[in-house]
Amino acid sequence: MTALEAVAVHLPPHAVPIEAVGERIGLTPRQLRLFRRFHGLDQLRLDPAGTLPDLLDATLDNLPELRGRERHVRFVIHARSMPVAVPYPLNPLHEVIAARGLAHANAFTVTHHACAVGLLAIDLAGRLLAADPDPQALALVLAGEKTFTKDAQVVPETGIFAEGAAACLVSADGPRHRVRSFAVRQRPEFDGRLAEDADLLARYQREYPNVMVEVIEAALDQAGLDLSELAAVLPHNVNQASWRMTARRIGYPLDKVVLDNVLSVGHSFAADSLINLHTATTRGLIRPGDHYLIAAAGIGATFSAMVMQY
């Protein structure tokens, strides 16, 4: 059963209020009031002077469990929300892993699930490792991106992006953070430029909570569990309002939905799930033996949920 052996997080020390970002990218005062008062956003972690390799490398600095085990890493997967991150022919992923003694690993990027791609990367890592005859084989999943364009800085009427990053070591089997189920619902009718199509944005916002509830219930059914058996729900950090609505719809206590990082970190693309997992474990919100659920949505649109056991 796919398991996470270790999780690491890097949060840039530079925290800025959402108004500073909003003014720079042309958000109106009304839009900023919506983000702060209704969606519950406050500040964002950003590294204005850093590059994508800097961001990923700083994350690996916080993963001591990798040191001395580099030879066992068969796959390195960058879970990336944006299809393009740097100009051709730059390749920051290969630049980072070469410096870390991982040039022998099969390294590639997964995308097209947008901000839900982090869960896809974990599932894919487990599938690849299950076919490897070496019981010590590992996969390294990296997540983290730069807010390098306006499209990479804001989802209209929904959220503002940050630059937190995360990494995890995945094994084909293990005693902790074991994957019990993985469910995906894709709605391609919502693929398009939300910022320029008000009707598409309105339809997406109406359907969003319904599909999120559907995928959460599907993941629970696969795992053979009930909502009451979950110690916590770890959401993506897009905003607080959508998760208040989702919690009400499924009848789950809002105080068990880990929303702390919406306020203090911001929506960090595909890294949210691992950032929130790190928060939940370090703060004792989940304990050994507990079941928890990670949920995420990506514009395009993909909705994913994964049930895990600590």
SSE order in H/E notation?
Answer: EEHHEHEHEHEEEEEHEHHHEE
Give the % helix: 25-40%
Point out poorly predicted stretches: none
Structural class: alpha/beta
CATH topology of the largest domain: Peroxisomal Thiolase, Chain A, domain 1
Main sheet, how many strands, which sense, barrel? 5 strands, mixed
Gyration radius (Cα, Å) is 18 Å
CATH superfamily of the largest domain: Thiolase/Chalcone synthase
The second-level CATH architecture of the largest domain is: 3-Layer(aba) Sandwich
Silhouette = globular
Spell out the key features of this protein.
globular, 2 domains, Peroxisomal Thiolase, Chain A, domain 1, five-stranded mixed beta sheet, 310 residues, four-stranded mixed beta sheet
Write up this protein.
Helices cover 33% and strands 24% of the residues. With 310 residues, it is α/β, with parallel strands linked by helices. It has two domains: 3-171, Peroxisomal Thiolase, Chain A, domain 1 (3-Layer(aba) Sandwich), CATH 3.40.47; 178-309, Thiolase/Chalcone synthase (Peroxisomal Thiolase, Chain A, domain 1, 3-Layer(aba) Sandwich), CATH 3.40.47.10. A five-stranded mixed sheet has the order 1-9-6-4-5, with helices on both faces. A four-stranded mixed sheet has the order 10-13-12-11, with helices on both faces. A two-stranded antiparallel sheet has the order 2-3. Helix 4 links the parallel strand 4 and strand 5. Helix 6 packs across helix 7. The model has no long low-confidence stretch (mean pLDDT 95).
